[in-house]
Every structure is written in C-alpha cells, then in structure tokens.
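This follows on from our talk about sequence and fold. Go ahead and set the record down below:
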Amino acid sequence: MSLNSKPMKYQILSALSIVFLFVFGCHSSQTTSDERILHSTSDDYLQYAKGFKVTSFDDIKLVEIREPFKGDTQGLSYWLIPKGMTVPDSLSNKTIIRTPIESLVCTSTTHITPLDLLEESDKLIGFPSTQYISSEKVKSQVENGITREVGRDNNLNVEVLLDLSPEVLMTYSMTGDYSHLTPFERSGIKVIQNAEYLEETPLGRAEWIKFMALFFDKEKEADSIFQIIADSYNSTLKLVESQEKDPTVFSGIVYGDTWFMPGGRSWAGKFFKDSRADFLWKNTPESGSLELSFEAVFEKAYQADYWIGAANYYSLDALKGADQRYSRFEAFSKKQVFTYNARQIPNGGNDYFESGFTRPDIVLKDLVKIIHPDLMPEHMLYYYRKLD
C-alpha cells in the first residue's frame, strides 16, 4: 500500500549531540582490547512509541524492548552492528544483529505492511499461515516460492524454518514462554521480539515501522514515512475538533454467552475518542476487551446512534440470523451498523488486521466518515463497510 503518489523527501534525522565517554568491559585506567570508547547520541527518532528505545554509539545501535510481553519487567536488548565491522570484545556475550539483514521470517501479518512501505518485502522468506496475507506483493512472493509457508499460526515448522535459515526470526509473545524458539537460536538464527501490540495509542503502534527499519538501516526512510502517517492522522484530529455533538457508539458482538466490548483504553477505544464519538464504555480502564452480558450491553446501548465493529458479518440479515436480539438495537433498525471487513479476502485474511495498525490515519478517516459524514464528503470507506 502506497502512502501517496508524490515522491517522498527523506528528512534528515535531527540529533542532539550529547557526547560522553561510554566504556565497555574493563574499568582500568589503561585501555585494553575489551574497552571501546564510543560516542552516545540521543536523537528524536521516536515521537509516540513507548515500547522500545534506541541509543546510538557511533555506528552501533542498542535497541531495548521495555516490555516484551504484558507484565514483563526484565526487557530485552539487541545490539545492531553493521556487517563488516569488528564486534567489540565486550559485546561478545550480547545479542548481536548484523545489519542490514538480508532475510527474515515474521510471524504476524502486522509485520508485513512495514516491510512493504520500506520496500523490503522481498527479504521475507517465510511466514506462517500464508493464506491470511493481504499484501499483494507478498502474496505474489508466496505464489512464486520466494516466501515459504513455515507452519500454522504459532506452531512453526522447525524443519522448514531451519532449512530456510533466515538471519532473523521476528516474533511476538503474549506470555513470555520462549521455549519453542530454542532450536532456532541454537542454529544461529537471531530471534527478535516485536512488542508493538502493547502500545496504547494508534500512532504509537504505527511508529514501530521505525523498529523494523533499524534492521535494514532505513531509519531516515521510516521517519519520512511515519511523518506522513502522523501528519495525516493529526490533520483529521484537528478537523473534528469543531464538532459540537459526539454521537453515541458501541461495538462488538456476542460469542457464546459473552459480549466482548473494547475497553476504554483499547486500540478501538482510542479511535472512538479521537473520532469524537461518545463511546459508551469510554471510562472503563481496560486496554483489552470487556466481557459483558447481552442484557448489560442492551440496557446501555439500545438507543446508541452507531454500532461500529459488528465482527465479520456482511449483512443485517446475517447479523439478525445469528441472534434475533441484535435487531432490537436502534442502530440496527436505523441501518447504522458498520464493520471492518471491507478488505477481507475469501480465505479469511483481513487487511484491517494487517495494514490497519500501520495506517491508523486511514482507520481514523473511516470512522470520522461514518460518525461525522459531512466532514469528509470525498473520503471513501477503506477498511469499514456499512451492513445493508
């Protein structure tokens, strides 16, 4: 997915030069082979992302993941050293990634769009459950054998992955159990944890394109791309500031006996807030989903203006067929039900869950188009569609 048709102007990273002596290893007054004196540079690389930090020491970069999975307090560190450069002896026991990398396997569709935007998709040589990929370029690579199937969901095929022998395996963890990754680390594959999903704001998550860029030495390109996304998002925020009315909104559906509603601090909750919707569960502290009864939702939302995020249904009839009670909501009777499957592919993959996390500016425009239609008359819904 391209950002626009205009050529990008790469912004030169503005950097504050804060120089101090950083000594690795021995603290003796005499310099040894285990000691390297490097210049540490603090820069303005990140604006919104909170989950990782980058510190530059001349050509070497230290990338720190603050919270690799929910509740972790240890963190993870990766030292990025250019290929051809001698590794300082004092870093010999650290996790070292040689850059730029030339091959990788990813395990989440959310990793694909940053690769596309950075024009590094051809380096993706393996992916699990390739049938769920939406990216046209990567789907073509799968068809041509450039990107191979390496398992299903989180069950990686060890034999296939070891045969591919990528330089990097980029994955994520919900629990901190890394035991299944041991065979790959033992074979020399560098395992990188991507914790983008823990970001608490749409732009914070989108800014993880800069995390991906570090491994390809494309920081300037990522900065330029992200700035376009951030400017687009913020211009929409400014557009809705003048709205006097915040229409009421609810979301989700029933699974089994439970209605799963986005929490007030969730990704969806933040979008509702930024689109100037009165999300009826906005004051809940959860960053994930709330588990509610149908009755509790109906009591609070039966007169809501919009029902946004009705899972994977394609029509009001199908929604009513799943549960007759859905038709009792006024948003249903007034045909103001929308969901995010406009870009779902036949086998079940949904681009909303692939590129939507990197393009929150488009998600926000969709929501503003739905909730405040007069503000964006020329915008056509991209991820969302109205159920008829």
